[in-house]
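so my prof wants the structure for this chain in the C-alpha cells format not the other one, which i didnt know existed until like an hour ago. anyway here's the sequence
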Amino acid sequence: MEFKVKDISHKFIDSLSDGVFSIALTLLGLDVLSLAHGISKSEDFNAAMFEHWPTFFAYALGFVVLFSWWYQYHVTSQYVVGTTATVVWNHGITMAWVALMPFAAALLAENINKPNMKWAVFYFGICLFGQSFTLTIQFLLVKLFKGNTTITFTEDFMLSSFSQQARFKFLLLFNAVPALLGSILISISLLNAWIALTGYGLYIFTLVTPVRNLNRLKPIVMKMAN
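here's what i got, hopefully its the right format
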C-alpha cells in the first residue's frame, strides 16, 4: 500500500479566516474609538462629531467591504471539498488583503478632502481589488507552471458538472472581470478621486448579496457548460 501525505482539512482554513476577519473588523473600529476623548471634550459636541465624518465614512465603507468578503467567502467555501496547495494559497492570499483593509480605511479617513486624497483613494482601490488582481495572477501562474489547478466542489454547486478545464476558465473569469474594473477605477483615482471613490462605492454595493449574485450567474454558468 502506497502512503501519501494528504493536504490539510478545509476546516483549518475556515478557522483561520474567521480569526483574521474578526481581528480586521476590530482594528477597523480603533480609529473611531480614538475620537471619543477629543469629541467628548469639545464645546460643540455635534460639530466635533461632524468634523470627523471622514473617519466614520471610512469605517462604514471598510466594514461593508470586510463583512461582504466574509459573507462571500463562506458562501463559496461551503461547496469546496478537500484542499490542494492552490486552494490553500488562494485562501491565504485573500486573508492577506483582509488584513490590509483596516490600513486602507485609515489612510482614506486621514486624507479625504486633503492634498493627498488621490493617493489615499488610489491605495484604497489597490486593497479593495487586490485579491482579484493576485488571484488572477495566481491562477495564471499555476496554469503556466503546470501546477494542480483542481478544485473539487460538492454535487449541489453550479460548477460541479463542469470539467476541470471549464472550472478553471470560469474561476479565472470570475476574478479577472473585477480586476479589470479595478484597474480602470484605480487609474481614474489619479485624475479625479471623487469619481473613483463613487465607483468603488457602487462596486462595494454589489458585494453585499453574494448569494443573489451567484444565483444570477447560474444561467451564464449553464450556458458555458453547454
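also thought this was worth mentioning. The CA atoms of residues 118 and 193 lie 5 Å apart.
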